[in-house]
Specification:
Radius of gyration: 22 Å
Shape: globular
Largest sheet: 10 strands, mixed
Helix content: 10-25%
Number of strands: 19
Order of helices and strands: HHEEHEEHEHEHEEHEEEHEHEEEEHEEE
Distance between the termini: 53 Å
Number of helices: 10
Strand order of the largest sheet: 7-6-5-8-9-10-11-17-18-19
Length: 389
């Protein structure tokens, strides 16, 4: 087996240089845990035409494999919920469903978790098990519980953790339910994105404990890293501390809108000129705000037979839509269904512009058993309350 200690030290050095690796304890973990152990049986690397090239640990030059393992990027380890790199030999198409997240993101999150010696941590989304191993090294294997919904992914992670010397608590199940048998926890960290923080995580966290999770919606962007502290009364308060992007929790993953989009938007109740360009939704903060204003919204792009750009917003559960057509720099919006989707989103975007474009880190967050509330201080129009029951 190739000794990768030089690569681990180099990785720690790069993470320190960019400012995400701060504490000596986490530095020791990064330098001790071999990332390559958590990439078996292999990875998919991006190829031309949106395809993927499988690369396996066995059959690849050891030096090349180590070079891949210590790239400063996320590495896809599963496609379409089942396919791994050892099952194919040629280029394949597919959607990533499991990956080894870039070390910058992993270490930045666990540093922000503010763990202390003896803390019990619940991790939602084991994935490859690399972040689990870092926490096991820092806290001890008996203080880490990690939950993974995919049995095959969980089995590979468990094997890798054992190989790395960590017999931790690995659980196969729905992470949205937490793991009450080992509760209460001092810290909860999610390495998947969720539409909102499940109250089960709050319930399973000790007063004074921290929950860290990527929230905001089901889009692959326009989400934020929420950090909340649990109070004695079972509520949790905090804020969005930065942008964050993870694969969505399996049960909450967005299902692409398929079929004839023109037929889906044939019966409109209103038509007008949009006051705000829908192209704003391609930017991070407006996308985050849109998903707060209309939690069930799906943003879809298409091209007409004439080559014109078309944009849509759908809310399948509320049977509502907004469709947009561009004409000489202006956008016409047609809306249909019981919920005026674009009216709701447009009001929020206008209020955000009037407030002089506050950043995502200005968003506060409060979670109770009944509600999930976001707001930006000093702006009554920038407040959203979602009822959970």
């Amino acid at each position: 087996m190739t000794d990768t200690s030089p690569q681990r030290r180099a990785l720690a050095g790069r993470l320190k240089e960019v400012g995400v690796l701060v504490s000596p304890q986490w530095q020791a973990a990064v330098e001790a845990v071999p990332r390559e152990l958590f990439l078996n049986p292999g990875v998919f690397l991006p190829a031309e035409g949106g395809q993927w090239r499988p690369v396996t640990a066995i059959g690849t030059d050891p030096d090349k494999w180590v070079q891949i393992a210590y790239r400063d990027e996320s590495l896809t380890t599963q496609l379409d919920g089942h396919l791994t790199a050892d099952q194919v030999s040629d280029l394949v198409s597919g959607s990533p469903t499991s990956s080894s997240t870039t070390p910058v993101t992993v270490v930045d999150m666990i540093e922000r978790l503010e763990v202390e010696d003896g803390h019990q941590v619940l991790e939602i989304g084991t994935g490859t098990g690399y972040s689990s191993a870092l926490m096991c090294h820092r806290l001890g294997e008996d203080n880490v519980t990690t939950v993974e919904v995919d049995p095959a992914v969980a089995a590979r992670a468990d094997a890798a953790l054992e190989t790395a010397g960590f017999s931790t608590w690995t659980v196969t199940g729905d992470g949205l339910l937490g793991h009450p048998l080992r509760a209460p926890y001092d810290r909860v960290i999610a390495t998947c994105a969720v539409r909102r923080i499940p109250y089960t995580w709050i319930r399973q966290t000790k007063p004074g404990g921290i929950v860290l999770a990527t929230v905001g919606g089901s889009w692959h962007y326009g989400t934020g890293l929420a950090k909340v502290t649990v109070a004695e009364d079972g509520t949790a308060d905090g804020r969005i501390i930065g942008r964050s992007s993870f694969m969505q929790a399996r049960s909450q993953a967005e299902v692409p809108i398929a079929g004839d989009l023109s037929a889906r938007t044939a019966y409109a109740d209103s038509e007008r000129e949009a006051k705000v360009s829908p192209l704003l939704l391609e930017e991070w903060m407006p996308a985050f705000l849109a998903q707060l204003a209309a939690p069930g919204a799906h943003f879809t792009r298409a091209t007409s037979l004439e080559g014109n750009r078309l944009l849509y917003i759908f809310d399948p559960e509320r049977e509502s839509f907004a469709s947009f057509a561009e004409n000489e720099g202006t956008w016409t919006v047609r809306q249909g269904g019981p919920l005026p989707l674009w009216d709701t989103i447009e009001q929020t975007l206008t209020a955000w512009q009037d407030a002089r474009y506050p950043d995502i880190t200005a968003v506060r967050l409060r979670v109770t058993q009944e509600t999930h509330t976001y707001w930006i201080e000093g702006h009554q129009a920038l407040r959203w309350q979602h009822h959970l029951v």
